[in-house]
Amino acid sequence: MSYFYMLFFPDLGALLKSFNQCHADPNNGFCLVPLTQSNFKLQKPYDTPLKQCYIYENGVHKLWVYADDKPHDPNSHTQSRTEIGIQCLDYSSGVWQFEGYVFVPNGTSGATIAQIHGTAHGATMFILRIYDRDMRYYSQDLVATSMYDKWF
User: Fold this and answer.
1) CB 146 within 8 A of CB 134
2) How many structural domains comprise the chain?
3) What is the 3-state secondary structure (H, E, C) of 57-86?
4) Stated pTM of the model
5) Can you tell which superkingdom this protein's organism belongs to (predicted)?
């Protein structure tokens, strides 16, 4: 079974600094919200069979997408994607935390590994991307280095 937590920090630098100074359990004060398959909305390249870009085994959702894949819809002007959206939960208010792990294979660059929609200005309020082995907040602020070939 998967679980969903979400916590929004407007200042990513302050968040990272607080993690380095604090050893408290980041889940304190949160309640588990179980997720089922009905909560997941999968998007994938429109011309690719699901089994070629997504598998679920041993409790792990594995998704992949290639730079030359098509977008999720033939009429879309977005980039290619394979992603799981969380649906049927109202997380537009309150404080939520999402917990998950990501593995970024060597050679990945320009891939979004996490995003949160729901802002008054622009499409997203939070994006983490990988550029040449480094994780960045959107495409600017450096969050972490040397992220290839390891779970985090």
Assistant:
1) yes
2) 2
3) ECCEEEECCCCCCCCCCCCCCCCCCCEEEE
4) 0.66
5) Eukaryota
